[in-house]
Amino acid sequence: MSEVTCIWQIPAQLGEGPLWAAQENALYWVDILNRQVHRLEPASGQKRSWTFSEPITSLALRQSGGFVGTVTHGFAAIDLDSRTIEPLVPVETDLPDNRFNDGKVDGYGRYWAGTMNRQEKEASGTLYRLDPDLSLHTVDEEYIITNGPAFSLDGTTMYHNDSVKGFVYAFDLQDDGTVRGKRPFTQLTFAKDGAPDGMTVDSENCLWLAHYGGARLTRFAPTGEILEVVPLPVPNVTSCTFGGPNLDTLYITTAAQNMSAAELEKYPLSGSLFAYQPGVKGLPTPQFAG
Fold first, then answer.
1. How many structural domains comprise the chain?
2. What are the catalytic residues?
3. Interior CA angle at 72 toward 50 and 160, to 5°?
4. Up-side HSE of residue 244: CA atoms within 13 Å toward CB?
5. Could you give the CA distance from residue 278 to residue 290 in angstroms, rounded to a whole number?
6. What phi and psi values does residue 261 have, to the nearest 5 degrees?
7. Spatial CA neighbour of 269 closest among 253, 247, 281, 288
8. Domain containing 92 — which CATH number?
């Protein structure tokens, strides 16, 4: 076991979506509110950032090369060098109070991503699945803030959450991408635990959950039992993913949004990127097959 280490001190407003690119030995992550994509090569410490005309809320590697991601109202091809966003599939353009939030690719190369209510009040968010043929499918509805998803080792369970309602849900995932059997996996109480945010699954089929407002990560067994709690020196922990040459490092994003001057003085590393070696490995990053 190791201590949590700050590896990039930066005041990201809403750091999210860490993505390990094995071919580059680099980590990508987004700052949604500052409309930025960041890249870190942990071995050399080299850092680079790109600013876009609109927020990129999640990012995925594309099998054909480059990146695909979610933007405010849809899925898009993302070109970092030219800082351009090419729309692929528009979503919820008739819902100005919504925007995309978190997203991730599964082992079949399908991109799962959800929308949220900007005011964080109405249950107007929806979880979608974008298949490699660019067909869009509605998976689940009535979310206030969607976060996740994450997938079990054998691909038969999907985890997804509503940060405001405090529930992490588990679904039975079929080979064709349909889901059944939605059920609560765990529930957090914000005053005590913070809100459930980004998630990843390790090579032992355990779920790592970021606690927004809860200053920690929690590792859950597939049965829901808490196996480990990892404190962080900032309150708003947003997401995590495994990376490094051996996939044995957890990279953790955080947020500085909505924090007062006094809170930022107390937690000066808010928004920064952290690393932790938990003694267990993660899984390779799936790529979008479209």
1. 1
2. 197
3. 100
4. 16
5. 33
6. -60, -40
7. 253
8. 2.120.10.30
Q: Tokens 């928004």 — which residue?
A: 271
pLDDT in tens, 44-95: 999 999 999 999 999 999 999 999 999 999 999 999 999 999 999 999 999 9
Q: Is residue 65 part of a domain?
A: yes
2 pLDDT above the threshold of 80: no
CB burial string 193-229: b at 16+ within 10 A, e below:
bbbbbbbbbbeeebbbbbbbbbbbbbbbebeeeeebe
Show the domain range for 232: 5-276
| CA pseudo-torsion sign 49, 53, 57, 58 | negative
Report pLDDT for 1: 47
**For 158-183, how does the pLDDT look when each residue is reduced to its tens digit (9 = 90+)?**
999 999 999 999 999 999 999 999 99
Q: Is residue 159 part of a domain?
A: yes
pTM of this structure: 0.97
